[in-house]
């Protein structure tokens, strides 16, 4: 069954122009795209909507991530329909542009993966990745990730794959234990700041920012620096660097062009889902809320979608902190600004007012930058 959304009918996509801008090498083989001779090991870590994610370790000890998506056609031994290259364009250009924010000048946000290479590979699936594929299929992680992609080495030798090689950015937020309420404040501060910078730079909307698309990595850096035109500020990390990933469903504007896909197909799949007590805990409900604003005009700039996902994230962080750390709700009034209950109160305050704002930029300027002991604004 083909569940893929369609490219917006009003969007005119010059694929060759995008590939050139993003320095995409075409029709290379896997050995050229990813120098396997430098690697010690590879591990499949999860499956996305259309592709698979592998991590690999180089002989020098560094770690990288490889996103691998079959492009065009269908799997020869199943009904699985691959996405078209045009459908992959928003992911390609968003990955490139957001990576650039790590080293920008007018706009800086260090919360997006660094992209090292993007390639269109025409080759049979390599043995190294197939070994990782089978280890994943037969391993315990399979129970946590029920999505099933067909066996990639059954594709013909002329099959096209999109590969995106990026920096290793840690583990999903859902797999990390929040034992410090101030880490919750830092996570929200980092995510809101990054989305606000991306909005200002590219009219960016993520549109799929569930907890699995937020990665958490240990860091020795005390703080992270951000720039929005003439405003410079820092966010304390509390020992963790947050990364935002997966731009398959994102909307971005660059060089007078809008890049996005329609999400009506995804919305339709969500309609049959049973209602939940608190919709903000359930990421599937976020697509339906976005649909109410879009009215099927997905090329339109709607930064309110970032607010919708920020509400989802904040609700889940608060719920986790209070459910797994019941002593937080019993703490006496704070003695100093870094008391845990102070952080809980701050997250609750944000939770109550998030939906009063129309964009991450608005939320940052009017809420997150105000009375937040983890943020320092540089003069």
From TrEMBL:
Assigned GO CC terms: cytoplasm; nucleus
Transmembrane parts of this sequence: none
Biological source species: Nephila pilipes
InterPro entries registered for this protein in UniProt: Kinase-like_dom_sf
GO molecular function: histone H3T3 kinase activity
A biological-process GO annotation: intracellular signal transduction
Protein name per the record: Uncharacterized protein
């Amino acid at each position: 069954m083909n569940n893929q959304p369609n490219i917006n009918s009003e969007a005119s996509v010059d694929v060759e122009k995008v590939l050139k801008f993003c320095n995409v090498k075409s029709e290379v083989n896997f050995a050229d795209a990813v120098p396997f001779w430098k690697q010690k090991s590879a591990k499949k870590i999860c499956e996305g909507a259309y592709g698979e994610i592998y991590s690999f370790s180089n002989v020098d000890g560094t770690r990288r991530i490889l996103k691998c998506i079959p492009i065009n056609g269908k799997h020869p031994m199943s009904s699985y329909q691959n996405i078209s290259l045009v459908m992959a364009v928003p992911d390609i250009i968003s990955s490139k542009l957001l990576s650039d924010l790590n080293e920008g000048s007018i706009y800086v946000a260090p919360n997006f993966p660094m992209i090292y290479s993007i390639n269109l590979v025409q080759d049979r699936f390599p043995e190294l990745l197939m070994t990782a594929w089978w280890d994943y299929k037969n391993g315990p992680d399979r129970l946590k990730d029920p999505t099933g992609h067909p066996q990639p080495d059954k594709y013909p030798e002329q099959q096209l794959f999109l590969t995106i090689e990026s920096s290793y950015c840690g583990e999903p937020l859902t797999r990390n234990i929040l034992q410090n309420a101030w880490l919750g404040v830092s996570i929200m501060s980092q995510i809101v700041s990054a989305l606000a910078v991306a909005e200002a730079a590219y009219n960016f909307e993520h549109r799929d920012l569930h907890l699995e698309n937020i990665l958490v990595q240990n860091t020795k850096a005390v703080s992270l620096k951000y720039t929005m035109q003439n405003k410079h500020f820092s966010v304390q990390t509390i020992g963790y660097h947050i990364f935002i990933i997966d731009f398959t469903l994102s909307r971005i504007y660059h060089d007078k062009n809008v890049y996005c896909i329609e999400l009506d197909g995804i919305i339709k799949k969500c309609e049959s889902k049973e209602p939940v007590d608190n919709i903000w805990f359930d990421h599937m409900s976020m697509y339906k809320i976005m649909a109410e604003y879009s009215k099927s005009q997905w090329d339109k700039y709607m930064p309110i979608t970032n607010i919708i996902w920020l509400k989802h994230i904040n609700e889940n962080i608060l719920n986790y902190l209070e459910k797994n750390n019941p002593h937080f709700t019993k703490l006496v009034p704070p003695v100093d600004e870094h008391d845990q209950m102070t952080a809980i109160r701050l997250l609750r305050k944000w939770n109550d007012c998030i939906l009063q704002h129309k964009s991450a930029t608005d939320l940052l300027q009017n809420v997150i930058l105000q009375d937040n002991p983890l943020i320092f604004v540089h003069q």
